Amino acid sequence: MIDLHGVHDDEELCTQMAIPVKKDIISSGFVPKAEKSMWTPIKNLTFLGTNIDTDKGVFTFPYNRIDKIMNTISDIDLCSANNGKVFVRKVASLVGQIISTSPDIGNIVVYLMTKHLYTDINSVHSWNSYTHLSVDSIDQINFCRFNLHEANVKPFKSDVSWQTFVYSDASNIGYIVENPYNIVH
């Protein structure tokens, strides 16, 4: 059950918790819009473009967003096949759509899926320009095309004890080591 603060198995407890939350929101000056507010517990909700499924304990993004990304990829394929160039706004639109999936599939994956596309976007001088997609950008588009459906699930909680990221700058002087428990500079 979604109780505006989190998730709980007990529907009755969620219902009881919703009452003071609603009162607090109203007493603090907010005016909830009746047609957009839900004060009864539910197990599935789409919130800010993300599906929240408390039965399975996962976040996903709606299939219509996947369809939109796939349609944009098809448009880019068509333009590229016809004249070898793609309108840079179309590539930027694809990057924006991929970035919008980051809450569900993770920031690192999104960064890796758009890195070379950004390079191609930044290589032009105007939004009204066309660009030739690099081989790396085409690889990233193909990665999205073939893997986005499988990447569309993120559990509420995950074991992050094994995760460590190391970042370094080009001068080999600065670095950051980050894990879920601390950051070392």
TrEMBL record:
What InterPro entries does this protein map onto? Hepadnavirus_pol/RT
Q: From the Swiss-Prot or TrEMBL record, give the protein name.
A: Uncharacterized protein
Its ancestry begins with: Eukaryota, Metazoa, Spiralia, Lophotrochozoa, Mollusca
